Amino acid sequence: MTETDFIAGLPKAELHLHIEGSLEPELMFALAKRNDVAIPFASVEEVRAAYSFSRLQDFLDIYYAGADVLRTTQDFHDLAIAYFDRAAADGVVHAEIMFDPQTHTARGIPFGTVIEGLLSGMAEAEAKHGMTSKLIMSFLRHLDEDDAFATLEAAKPWLDRIDAVGLDSSELGHPPEKFARVFAEARALGLRLVAHAGEEGPPEYVYQALDLLGIDRLDHGNRSLEDPVLTARLARTSMTLTVCPLSNLKLCVVDDMADHPIDRMLREGLRATLNSDDPAYFGGYIADNYRAAAAARGLDRDDLALLARNSFLGSFLPDDAVAAHL
Ligand code: HPA
Ligand code: ZN
């Protein structure tokens, strides 16, 4: 069996995926036309050529601009099912997808338009592919905590359809402590908690995510490795890290895939998983991430199977469903 077939055939969960980051240029153009929205690109090729980033903020600027074509429930449905179709081909059997409501509500798109479209895409994925999924509502950390509280309030009618809250966008200068109160409120409402930390931010931000937010899962976490005490704690507590190799390369978190720490994470006993983050922008879906990491760091099939196993262990599925996937 080829490596590509082995990876695609490995049942896996995707735990770090921004649905807005799965907007392929072709769909961006189609939605721009359908909604009569002007976009600053003449062709799909021009869009792809613009995807050259030297840090997180370069990407975020273009990612928020691209999301402007998303206007209707049908748009969010189409976005979601395009991702689920692609993920199913990569062997994803369960996906926990993030969405950024503030990116849309700030443009006057109602919260319900966004979530109803995503939920209908999720239902279609289950019917079509047998794929289960969960929603993670992410707060934009460059906005203030009051805005996050307002978002949590807007989500109240759909709380039973949302599994977790997350924290994304510009990390540097926006430490987790800024959101301690809204995360406490989300926890009190029965939601799970995840946060991006240690992507560009220092180990201190990971400590804050653990100690001040009380996260159940750590998005990225790469820079934790700079601190041996923190690394040992993450290993001892079986904290799941949602690692995104192609994203790390595109956003210059690593200079070269050959420098990626995924094998070191496994050696240190971390519960690392592989994910695609924003696949339309970073050059690949989840199987591409498995392939790139394996090729660059010499991961063998046992390592890849362990990464897939970790993805179920780190999911928010109930224990019996996790056990059924192992
Ligand atoms: N980091 C922070 N915010 C994000 C990302 C990311 O990789 N993708 C989408 N929003
Ligand atoms: Zn992310």
Automatic annotation (TrEMBL):
The keyword GTP-binding does not apply. Pfam families: A_deaminase. Its cofactor is Zn(2+). It comes from the Bacteria. GO terms for cellular component: cytosol. InterPro entries: A_deaminase_dom, ADE, Ado/ade_deaminase, Metal_Hydrolase. Substrate binds at residue 278. Keywords: Hydrolase, Metal-binding, Nucleotide metabolism, Zinc. This is Adenine deaminase.
